[in-house]
Amino acid sequence: MSIKQLLLGRPLRNSELSHEKLSTLWGVPIMASDAVSSVAYAIEEILLVLVPVLGFMAIPYLGVIAVPILILLLVLVFSYSQIIDEYPGGGGAYIVSAENLGKKTSLVAASALIIDYVMTVAVSISSATSALVSAFPALAGSRVLIALIGLAFITLLNLRGVNESSKVFGVPTYGFIFMMVLLIVTGLAEYLFGNLHAIQYAGEAVERAPDALLTVAPMFLFLKAFSSGCSALTGVEAVSNAVPSFREPSKRNAKRVLYILAGIITFIFGGSVLLAMALGVVPLTGHTVIAQMGEAVFGKSVLFYILQFATSLILLLAANTAYSGLPTLLSILASDGYLPRQFGQRGFRLAFSNGIMFIFAAAGILIALFRANTHHLIPLYSVGVFISFTLSQGGMVVRWFKNRGNGWKKHALVNGFGALMTVVGAVIVFVAKFKDGAWMLAVAIPAISLLMGNIRRHYEFIGGQLKVDDFKDHYYKSVSSDKFLCIVLASAMTRSVLKTLNYANALSSNVVALHISTDAERTATLKKKWEEYEIDVPLEVIEAPYRDIVTPIDDYISQKEAGVKPGENISVVMVKFVEKSWYDNILHNQTTYFIERRLRRHKNVVTIIVPYIYFPKKGDLKQHQGKSGEKA
Predict the structure, then answer these.
(1) Residue 373: which domain range?
(2) Residue 236: inside a domain
(3) Does position 190 have pLDDT exceeding 70, yes or no?
(4) pTM summary value
């Protein structure tokens, strides 16, 4: 067993994909973990804004801030249920915007979602670390290391596949939900019966800033608190982004999970706000709000430590919502040509492994830069998701007015109200957090959108360069008298494959084209064109149920090599796409390199690499902009 198999388990066949999809039972904890866990820091972030200005007077206003957040949550849930009905292929705000608001707008939505998903992971991991440090203060000096270890753990579990990770994450998530329900019900019941009293703080623990209200406009104060509390809404969009990840009927299961998620969040967030108000909780350094409420209700009993452990674990596992939603979104963007094709490939365990590793790298950098400090990361959080909220709702309004089906006015009203609320929320969140770091998103979102647009133009141009309509006219049959076997690796009917076939026919009259099939539709297209162009070279197709190209090629050549006579050799001809810039090479698969390395082990095999050189002239891509082209 290799180290890879030891860590990830056995490889999964393409036919096992249906077993890797989420059921309602395990879909709830995966999709709800981010939103449910937000109560562990959303309430605290509201109080961190209000308390320095209002002191203990901030407590009654906690409910004033929470009510509009819960109303917005319910509006978003009903709106996203309509998106699931209309766009069951997933992609959420990106797909809705692309179809109804235009490609440029859809790239803004996609960029905002990418940033928000990565921030979800960084914030969740950092919050989990804070909860752990609250229970064990001696660990404070190792918070960054603890956060990175937690990130690596979550990444590894997701690389093992959805089915396995959902069960590992599901039990702790349900455990946290149970502990929060127990905390809320017990705490409020004790308070109503007069057995629970407000927490008593030392006089110097919480002091209102002198004359603070004279320097801070009350409306701006409450809007800033609202913007901080809106972190509780992140994760709602994840269900619509990952509809294909659910078992059939995927639409029904996705909507069911969305509604269950709304019920859980409403109870836990709303109940936690009521309990926090009853106890008069205020933030303290080294002691989270949840920890203070737990100690007040349970005391320093076993239940308190179970709650802290469950909170730390759910905050750690909340990152899994991003691991479920973002790789799917990245694969859709890759299939549309806006990201490197590698993001669309399923890995060893049928997960989108490259997307998962992207999350690991991006979130790890943020955790290290911000020292795993949740409060420093929050200003960058939730701005992106509000932009995607607004664009998805606005796109749906345009769709209803365009199609005008049954009940379209009612649907348009729901999405229109949602768009109005979210655009107001987006402005509030961005303005309130601008000085604290949200300004960086005003640079990052356009930059990412521009990058994706350039990638798309590159792929379109390359697709045009590789496209060959007159394949038959430029294909030259073999005139060689050499009988040694020559194998040509053929992935698709392109100009590069034409070049390798002509080169092989010049070497030998015994040429075989080999295609490794990882996509049935693509293979069927190749076979059809092969017959249509009447190519005299036989085409042999090998199925690759594990999506590994190198091993089937190696096995095939090993079988052929067994029949080679002394003094004979087998020639393997393959193309390598040569770019002028190193960063252009990132956009293309480097499979040729790995195949060539594997074939070095063969004694009687000669590897021939035919370069297909593309050095674009200045302005080529701009001239091509707007023209259609096949995917490279």
Answers:
(1) 33-458
(2) yes
(3) yes
(4) 0.80
Q: What is the CATH number of the domain that holds 445?
A: 1.20.1740.10
- pLDDT value, residue 217: 66
Is residue 446, in this structure, part of any structural domain at all? yes
Domain co-membership, 484 together with 453 = no
Angle, vertex CA 183, rays to CA 181 and CA 189, nearest 5: 95
Quote the tokens at residue 139.
């660990």
CB–CB of 317/154 below 8 Å? yes
Return the sign of the alpha-carbon dihedral for residues 524, 526, 532, 535. negative
* 243 and 333 belong to one structural domain: yes
Q: Is the pLDDT of residue 271 over 60?
A: yes
> What is the spatial distance between Cα 621 and Cα 147, in angstroms, rounded to a whole number?
42
Q: Which 3 state secondary structure label does DSSP give 548?
A: coil
Residue 115 is predicted with a pLDDT of: 92
**pLDDT level of residue 256 (50, 70, 90 thresholds):** very high
For residue 626, what pLDDT is reported? 46
Q: Which of 487, 535, 494 is nearest to 515 (CA)?
A: 487
437 plus 492 within the same structural domain: no
Higher pLDDT, 22 or 378: 22
* Res. 11: pLDDT tops 70: yes
Please state the φ and ψ torsions of residue 373, each to the nearest 5 degrees.
-100, 110
> What tokens appear for 144 in the block?
């960054």
Q: Specify the pLDDT at position 623.
A: 52
Are residue 287 and residue 247 in the same domain, yes or no?
Answer: yes
Q: Report yes or no: 499 and 575 within 8 Å, Cβ to Cβ.
A: yes
Look-up: residue for tokens 């000669």? 606
Q: How many whole angstroms separate alpha carbon 593 and alpha carbon 605?
A: 16
The answer on 175 and 85 residing in a single domain is yes
Determine phi and psi for 200, rounding to 5 degrees. -100, 125
- Tokens 């455990």, residue located: 175
Question: Which amino acid does the sequence have at 273?
Answer: V
HEC letters along 126-156: HHHHHHHHHHCHHHHHHHHHHHHHHHHHHHH
